[in-house]
Protein 1
Amino acid sequence: MLRYILKRLLLLIPTLLGILAITFAVIQFVPGGPVEQMVAQLSNNQAGAESSGGGSVGWQKGGHLGADEIAELNKLYGFDKPPLQRFGDMLWRFARFDLGDSFFHHQSVGQLIIDKLPVSISLGWWTFLLTYLICIPLGIAKAVYDGSRFDAASSLLILVGYAIPPFVLGLVLLVLFGGGSFWAVFPLGGLTSDNWADLSLGQKITDYLWHMALPITAMVAGNLAVMTVLTKNVFLEEIRRQYVYTARAKGLPERQILLKHVFRNALIPLITGFPAAFIGAFFTGSLLIETLFSLDGLGLLSYQAVIKRDYPVVMGTLYVFTLLGLLAKLLSDLSYMWIDPRIHFDGQER
């Protein structure tokens, strides 16, 4: 067991290095980098200043930067060094969990992630929690009453929810309940109200849930179908196994058979995805949902970093998310053994 864990942890290193190396190499060939964007911005500002009768010392005429200014920008962003040296410096910083500083936000990438986490935790955690709390009982009920009217009606509802994109559903919810053309029941956006600091503890909880109701509903609706169908199929497979018929023949109550025997065996494929989903809940971000409901989270941060070519943010967030994802995969594998003692990783049978 310990040998397997050490082996997997050692395998994380080349996997992580490979992902970072590929992404870093692709970045080198992407046009419109931070230097080019800054040159265009400064050149436009200079051209505007000259057209209004102003000027700037040390700048080329006509609104264009000279070679010295461009060299200074390359030095400022660290592009005066060879790519391999920059990649090595980045790896050394990442090894010390120093994610560097953002080109455009003028603060550390780690602090940016921490600042955006409350929104992403709110979206991811509630989506994860409600998805599991709804889908597992619903999937079990659909398996027990397979082929009934309840099964058909619930299947229709979850498939309709799955077919509607979360962004479209969120827009519909805003129109209906966010002060659009119908009822102004929920706020248009934001995580809390402006008077948050003046509210009591109970009022703060109510205000927070009041703001999160619409975006969470939009995100959960699209996640119900996959988990519910998976739960139903797994339980149906277990219910139809021979040991269930044997237990029924012995006169065991149906509830005892379901909870004591079927539930534990059917839980294996469901629980193995739990660690990855749980860790991902703290770092998930939906760009469209965050934009629609004015929530400044990690999804919006990642999108802006790609558009602005904010490479420290792109590489820093990629490093953190990839590392956590690989660790979550390891925990998922280990959860197999925790759920089923017959499974182990020593290459021997028990």
Protein 2
Amino acid sequence: MLTRYIFSRLLLMIPTLFGVMLVAFIITQFVPGGPVEQLISELKGQNKQGEASTGVEGLYRGATGLDAKRIAELKALYGFDKPAPERFFLMVQNYVFFELGESYFYHQSVIDLILAKLPVSLSIGLWTFFLTYLIAIPLGISKALHDGSAFDITTSTLILIGYATPSFVLGVFLLVLFGGGSFFNLFPLRGLISDHWDSLPLMAKITDYLWHLVLPITALLVTNLALMTFLTKNSFLAEIKQQYVITALANGLTPNAILYRHVFRNAIIPIATSFPTAFVTAFFSGSLLIETIFSLDGLGLLAYQSIIQRDYPVVLGSLYIFTLLSLFAKLLTDISYVLIDPRIQYGSINQ
């Protein structure tokens, strides 16, 4: 049953992935100012200063501009000499083998480019992921056990204030307050490591790395806590009010025994089953504005720059990897439902 379900879901991923890439490819065909147009503009702008440093020599002819033959050469350079359907199916064929092409702007493999930027996004995303769950689950349980108390009301107010504050606004505030502005100079302003990081001993390297993460992680964490905290609280509240809890109390079980032996196991299901999706999303969860504010060269900044520069191989390649990982994460989430709660059957997961 499990094998058949996984196989059917894998088959369904194919048209989903194909549809996502088709829509993205079509959109790129209608966006003005593509790579050919940008190169022509660059050639015109650099003509007065000499030969353009684009790797395409002798294409621009001064006041006469570019004739049709030269424009055709530029289109061939970027692969636009083929019809759009042929280019799409050639792209799909290459993507099957994870051949994502070469960046127009960076002039290197898209895979290598993604791998080069990945450590920054991993550092931001995974630390935010782990700290969110580490703080939100105990806090949510405490709020459920003290529902309506002063502790519950106070923490809810603080969490909602943090949720309503945009992460980039909080990031700027933290930089001004703790980054050597008009107040305290406690944390570094930019990057993940110091310039002299390679010369530091091991423990100093770890400390330096973690010290650089404090401000950006705090800016993201404060805005991410609300959803998981209230999900945990509501899940435990719903279980605490179940009849089996009242029966267990009547049979003499202590509140702690009921909480950790019965309530916790049932209430944690919606939280635990979100782990796969949240974990995979962490690979691409670096906020663009946070990366910009703290000068962190991650996937968010790469994606934004690629869109502005019409670097289609990077845009489509990143989208392909993220969509593929998201589909597998959804499959793992559905499987985890059944593994954690045997009452759920595979055939009814998506019903």
